[in-house]
Amino acid sequence: MTNFVDGTTRTRWDELRMFVRLVVEIGTIFDSNGINIHFLNRQNSYRISNPKDVERLFKIPPRGYTPLARVLRNILQSHVQHQQNKKLLIFIATDGIPTDDDGNPNLPEFKHVMEHERQVDNTHVMFLICTDDSETVSYLRQWDAEMVNVDVTDDYQTQEKMIREIHGANYPFSYADYVVKVLVGAIDPDIDRSDDLPDEDDILS
């Protein structure tokens, strides 16, 4: 999270802070109760309705391991208890392989939560890639292709390069397009597929 984004003076943490602020600004238009923010290695979650509060939360730098399975399980269980069948959109920013609280890799457990503990019909998950680590990117891209209501997005520069490698150098992809991809890619299948490689049949046809 503290590495610089290619070609910029911003860290991944800075990029994430900007994105969370944007989500709060847009999300509170539709839900005045605010947005719930969960940090993997903080005991408390935070309900934010004022974008300015994001700056305060992000003054504390990232630390610790990556207990995605435990945190996501807690979020899902809480949602079932209080919201029943209401649709849920979750953004997960990660820079590493999922671990338990002691730092031991536990990708199979996290996959189980995603596939069997998540209500796939009404729980949409957007993964934000905050690393260049090929192993992390590999499993997320596979989940994007295999799991329902799941999308994966990188930082703007990487995403722009990927989109134009697939659709051509002149394909329009602005920062506004990127924001739309991040916000609704896990909800809208057409936007989700915008960075997918074409099927072999499409290439041959």
From TrEMBL:
Identify the PANTHER family for this entry: SLR1338 PROTEIN, VWFA DOMAIN-CONTAINING PROTEIN
Q: Which InterPro entries match?
A: vWFA_dom_sf
Q: Which SUPFAM superfamilies match?
A: vWA-like
Q: Which domain of life is it from?
A: Eukaryota
What protein name is recorded for this chain? VWFA domain-containing protein
